[in-house]
């Protein structure tokens, strides 16, 4: 019985070991990418939240423009799309900029509605 077990050629081939290793590495790389992307999104949302709190604090402390003003916006369509938006708002506007982890500069516009 022991000799039969020792002489048996049953087992895992090198090809199946390599295939399992490749699948494992693909899974690990997907998880790493997902973690990095979620961390970048979390960092960007934290920056936006801080800027929002600064804008609200400035508005309620009276550090924004004292009088409301009227602004016209034309939002240009993204490349490959047809839609364009034109809007007119009245109120107090504050703009902030921040840089993402990838170095892209983003702009935030805060609008506080005018009291009528």
Brief summary of the model shown:
The chain is an alpha+beta fold and 116 residues long.
Which sequence of strands runs across the widest sheet?
A: 1-2-3
Q: Which class do the helix and strand fractions yield?
A: alpha+beta
Q: Provide the succession of SSEs.
A: HHEEE
Overall morphology: elongated
| Rg over alpha carbons | 29 Å
Portion of residues in beta strands equals 25-35%
| Helicity level | 40-55%
Q: Give the termini distance in whole angstroms.
A: 96 Å
In the residues, how many domains can be counted?
Answer: 1
Uncertain spans: none
What is the arithmetic mean of pLDDT?
75
How many individual β-strands?
A: 3
Number of helices: 2
Largest beta sheet, briefly? Answer: 3 strands, antiparallel
Word description of this protein:
- This protein is an alpha+beta fold.
- The protein has one domain (10-113).
- It has two helices and three strands.
- The protein has helices at residues 2-7, 14-60; strands at residues 69-75, 85-99, 105-113.
- A three-stranded antiparallel β-sheet has the order 1-2-3.
- The longest helix is centred in the N-terminal third of the chain and has 47 residues, at 14-60.
- It is elongated, with a radius of gyration of 29 Å.
- The termini are far apart.
């Amino acid at each position: 019985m022991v000799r039969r077990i020792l002489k048996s050629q049953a087992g895992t081939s090198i090809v199946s070991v390599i295939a399992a290793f490749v699948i494992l590495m693909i899974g690990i790389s997907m998880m790493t990418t997902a973690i990095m992307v979620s961390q970048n999104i979390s960092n960007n949302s934290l920056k936006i939240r801080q800027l929002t709190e600064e804008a609200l604090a400035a508005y309620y402390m009276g550090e924004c423009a004292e009088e409301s003003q009227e602004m016209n916006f034309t939002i240009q369509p993204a490349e490959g799309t047809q839609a364009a938006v034109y809007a007119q708002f009245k109120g107090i506007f504050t703009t902030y900029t921040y840089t993402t982890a990838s170095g892209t500069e983003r702009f935030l516009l805060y609008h506080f509605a005018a009291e009528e």
